[in-house]
Write a structure and sequence with these properties.
The protein is mainly β and 194 residues long. Strand 7 and strand 8 form a beta hairpin. The longest helix has 16 residues.
């Protein structure tokens, strides 16, 4: 009896711990601008494709052609289609059935234009598919994200336009922000690590 109980416990534990999760990462941005939105997948099993419908908040619009895959992809392609008002469908696949690399992290990024109102906006995700080489959907769960918009950024202030230089770009460990302006007013900078 104890061996059977141990077997059942191990079986239940291993089958419930398997997780293949797709989610939209939370991001921060500014109003009347653009924001980069990442889609992440955490996977227990290899996968060769994914698809999802992204439910955009009111006032946000997809920037055409902005979808990119991350280095987790090998020979994969990605497409975005507007399927209805404020809903885009993202589809990525490999013609050679090549698996995405790693078992967690961002798989794709895309840009959205932001509305003129500050606040927290829910960005939904629906109809998710994580496909393996046998064309089986191994998705266990999907998680929506949130976009937090703050006031107009310093780059949109006419006094400072074309006066700010950030380097190195892209940055890894440190960032230098140089402001070439002679002004007597207080300037506040908010730097977001996206």
């Amino acid at each position: 009896k104890s061996i059977l109980l141990l077997f059942l416990l191990v079986f239940v534990f291993t089958t419930t711990s398997a997780q293949n999760i797709m989610h939209i990462n939370n991001v921060q941005g500014v109003i009347n601008s653009t924001v980069l939105v990442p889609i992440s997948i955490t996977n227990d099993e290899e996968f060769i494709s994914f698809q999802c419908d992204v439910l955009l908040p009111d006032g946000f619009n997809y920037v055409a052609g902005s979808i990119t895959l991350t280095p987790r992809s090998v020979d994969h392609v990605v497409n975005v289609t507007n399927i209805e008002n404020n809903v885009i469908r993202i589809l990525s696949y490999s013609l050679n059935n090549t698996a995405f690399l790693l078992d967690s992290g961002i798989v794709a990024n895309f840009n959205l234009t932001t509305p003129p109102a500050e606040g927290d906006y829910s960005i939904g995700i629906d109809n998710g598919i994580i496909g393996n080489a046998q064309s089986i959907n191994i998705l266990d769960s999907i998680v929506a994200g949130e976009i937090t918009l703050g006031p107009i950024g310093v780059l949109e202030n006419n006094v400072l336009e074309d006066k700010i230089k950030c380097f190195p770009n892209p940055t890894k460990e440190s960032l230098i922000i140089q402001i070439d302006v002679d002004c007597s007013q207080l300037i506040k900078l908010k730097v977001f690590d996206l």
